[in-house]
From TrEMBL:
<feature type="transmembrane region" description="Helical">
    <location>
        <begin position="20"/>
        <end position="39"/>
    </location>
</feature>
<dbReference type="GO" id="GO:0005886">
    <property type="term" value="C:plasma membrane"/>
</dbReference>
<comment type="similarity">
    <text>Belongs to the CALHM family.</text>
</comment>
<keyword id="KW-0407">Ion channel</keyword>
<keyword id="KW-0812">Transmembrane</keyword>
<feature type="transmembrane region" description="Helical">
    <location>
        <begin position="97"/>
        <end position="125"/>
    </location>
</feature>
<dbReference type="InterPro" id="IPR029569">
    <property type="entry name" value="CALHM"/>
</dbReference>
<feature type="transmembrane region" description="Helical">
    <location>
        <begin position="51"/>
        <end position="70"/>
    </location>
</feature>
<dbReference type="GO" id="GO:1904669">
    <property type="term" value="P:ATP export"/>
</dbReference>
<dbReference type="GO" id="GO:0005261">
    <property type="term" value="F:monoatomic cation channel activity"/>
</dbReference>
<keyword id="KW-0813">Transport</keyword>
<dbReference type="Pfam" id="PF14798">
    <property type="entry name" value="Ca_hom_mod"/>
</dbReference>
<keyword id="KW-1133">Transmembrane helix</keyword>
<keyword id="KW-0406">Ion transport</keyword>
<protein>
    <recommendedName>
        <fullName>Calcium homeostasis modulator family member 6</fullName>
    </recommendedName>
</protein>
<feature type="transmembrane region" description="Helical">
    <location>
        <begin position="176"/>
        <end position="196"/>
    </location>
</feature>
<keyword id="KW-0472">Membrane</keyword>
Length: 314
């Protein structure tokens, strides 16, 4: 039991890292299955280039869109945005663009992993480049006049010495590009992470406390919401069958739900750990959570919007 609890504690503390690691492993495994089972280069001057590019880029695009769909911040941003007033939309436009950029950066992990693993494997690149007329001049430099005509057959005809030489060259190019992409992504991630942490308005330990608070708020909110919804449902069903009047059961207004579902903004003058926290303390003063001077979207606090109720119906 203690070992199981330790595993759960580890998962809770390193949820983000474990999630990214799992996405990377699944993407790499999916690419290996595709290249071994599904992918079959047509070895045609007409089809090699589009066929190779489709397998290299289209799954990456699908994974990018899936990353958007699986992000809680995406739906927090989109839900109800069309029904807001024009003034509300214009005031939050810049903030929304900034959040979209953050979501895009997170969603790009799986696509970049797919492209990098595919380049390291080399199959997609070999097929695509062997059908490129512009690359034929470079690859066939110093070779016989029949090289350009034979080039599309390189992925299929691996017996000839000349074909093996070109295939080795293509594989080397693909793997070099793959390692360059991996190095560039790692450097970019470390740079962005370092800059966002450097610009953090709060300290390292306060961020840790913040994460703990959000996890506890999410758990309690989920529990209270389930309990309240159960009580309301029971009361409505009871009144229906007994043909009686319902007892008063208060629920938050639509405006209250909208306000706690808004994107989080940080204000050093009045620090709050979530939109729910902000709603409880600001509503007494103005009854609104509209932006005030000093409110800003802080990159390092993006995890605040990612926290939310567990979607049990999905």
């Amino acid at each position: 039991m203690e070992k199981f609890k330790a595993v759960l504690d580890l998962q809770s503390k390193h949820r983000s890292a474990l999630g990214y690691g799992l996405v990377t492993l699944l993407t790499a495994g999916g690419e290996k299955i595709f290249s071994a089972v599904v992918f079959q280069c047509p070895c045609s001057a007409t089809w090699n280039l589009p066929y190779g590019l489709v397998f290299l880029l289209v799954p990456a695009l699908a994974l990018f869109l899936l990353g958007y769909a699986l992000s809680a911040r995406t739906w927090r941003l989109l839900t109800g945005c069309c029904s807001r007033s024009a003034s509300a939309r214009s005031s939050s436009r810049l903030r929304s663009v900034f959040v979209c950029a953050q979501i895009s950066a997170a969603a790009a992990l799986a696509p970049l992993t797919w492209v990098a693993v595919a380049l390291l494997g080399g199959s997609f690149y070999e097929c695509a480049v062997s059908g490129s007329a512009s690359m034929a001049t470079l690859l066939c430099k110093g070779r016989g006049p029949s090289c350009a005509a034979k080039l599309p057959q390189v992925p299929c005809n691996k017996q000839e010495a000349e074909m093996q030489d070109i295939l080795s060259q293509l594989k080397a190019q693909s793997q070099v590009l793959g390692w360059v992409l991996i190095a560039a992504v790692i450097i970019l991630l470390l740079t962005v992470k370092s800059v966002t942490r450097c610009l953090s308005p709060v300290s390292y330990l306060q961020l840790k406390f913040w994460e703990i608070y959000l996890e506890k708020e999410r758990q309690i909110f989920q529990s209270q919401a389930t309990e309240h919804a159960t009580q309301l449902a029971k009361e409505n069903v009871r009144c229906f069958f007994e043909c009686s009047d319902p007892k008063e059961c208060k629920t938050p207004s639509t405006k209250a739900w909208q306000q706690i579902s808004a994107l989080y903004t940080f204000n050093p003058k009045s620090q709050f750990y979530s939109m729910l926290h902000k709603y409880i303390y600001r509503k007494e003063a103005s009854g609104s959570l509209r932006s005030v001077e000093g409110d800003a979207v802080v990159p390092v606090l993006g995890f605040v919007d990612a926290s939310g109720m567990v979607n049990t119906h999905e």
